[in-house]
Write a structure and sequence with these properties.
The chain is an all-beta fold and 124 residues long. It is 0% helix and 49% strand. It is globular.
Length: 124
């Protein structure tokens, strides 16, 4: 079992930055893929960024968001810059059992464990 706890969300103005963190505990390994998803009210949960051997990003965040992980700390990060109001959503951390192929990194079905989420609100 894997337990994921996100933090770092908050309210910022457009153009601002935030860094989200996700601390993983339990049976998590460096070879397990991890990702960030987000869900805005009335919308489906969508993949934002995933990481295995390399990272993959949704087109809407390319060049603005950076996913990284510190395996020594079992922590996944999402650095977000140039935030836009449309980035407003609950952000969730996810972990898979094992590696996920690059083309599946942003798919919800690839992940087995989910955190409770951290809210990001961007005002114009």
């Amino acid at each position: 079992q894997v337990h994921l706890v996100e933090s770092g969300g908050g309210s910022v103005q457009a153009g601002g930055s935030l860094r989200l963190s996700c601390v993983a505990s339990g049976d998590i390994y460096n070879s397990d893929s991890m990702a960030w998803f987000r869900q805005a009210p009335g919308k489906e949960r969508e993949g934002v960024a995933g990481i295995y051997i390399s990272g993959r990003y949704a087109d809407s965040v390319k060049g603005r968001f950076t996913i990284s992980r510190d395996n020594a700390k079992n922590t996944l990060y999402l650095q977000m810059i140039s935030l836009k109001p449309e980035d407003t959503a609950m952000y969730y951390c996810a972990a898979a059992r094992g590696g996920v192929q690059w083309w599946s990194l942003l798919g919800r079905d690839a992940y087995n464990y989910w955190g409770q989420g951290t809210q990001v609100t961007v005002s114009s």
